[in-house]
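Follow-up to my post from last week.
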Amino acid sequence: MNTFFLVVGVGMCVLVLFCLYRATMGPDVLNRAAGISAIGTKTLIILLLMGAVYERVEMFIDISMVYALLNFIGCLVLARYIEETGEVSC
Amino acid sequence: MIKDYQDVIVKTVARLVVPFIVTYALYVVMHGHHSPGGGFQGGVILAAGFVLLGVTHGLERTRRRMSEKAAGVMSSVGVFIYAGTGILCIILGGNYLDYGALTGLLLVSRPEARSLGILGVEIGVALAVMAVMCLIFFSIFTVDEPGEDEGSTE
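User reply:
Got it. Predicted complex:
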C-alpha cells in the first residue's frame, strides 16, 4: 500500500508540472488562474499522500486543511482582481 | 476600495465558512505545542477570515467589525502579552521567558506551568499577527482619496 501511495504521489507531481506550464505560459489571465487553482488542489492531495506514506496523517491533515482554505481565499481574491481591472477580453 | 459583492453564492458561502475559519484558527493556536501550528499560523488563519469577509462583503462592513484603530491597539496588546509573560518570569526569579518560574503564580507543577506559559505567549503572538495582517490588508486595498495624494490615479 505504501508503494501505491508513493507512485500516486509521484504521478501527481508530474501532473503539477503540466499545470505549472499552463500557469506560466498561459495566453490569458483566466488560464493562469485555472492553472494556479489546479496546482493548489493537487498540492493538497500530495500532502495527504505524504502523510499516508509517513504514517502521520493526523499531522498532515491540519496542514492540508489550511492549504485548502487559503487556496479558496486566494482564488476569490484573484477573481476579484480580474473583475475589477477588467483584463479579460472575452 | 472593495465594494459589496453582488453574488448570492459567494456571499452565502463566505458567511457560512468564516465561523469555521475562526474556530479552526483557535484550534491551531491552542493545539500548537502538540501539532503543526502555533501563534503565528493561528494568527494568519484568523486574519484570513477577515480577508474573506473583506473581499466578499466589502471593506466598509469589515471595518465596522475590525477598525484600523482596534487593529493597532490589538497588535500592541499582543506584543505586551508576549513581553509581559517574559518579564513576569524575570520578576518571579527566572530568566526571560523561563516559564518554569511561573509555577509560584499559577499554583501548578513545573511542566504544567511551562505548558501554560507557552500557551500565553502563543495567544499574544496570534493577537499581534492577526492585527498586523488585517492592517496590511486594509492598507493594500484602500485607495487614497483624490487630491490627497497626487501620485495616485485610481
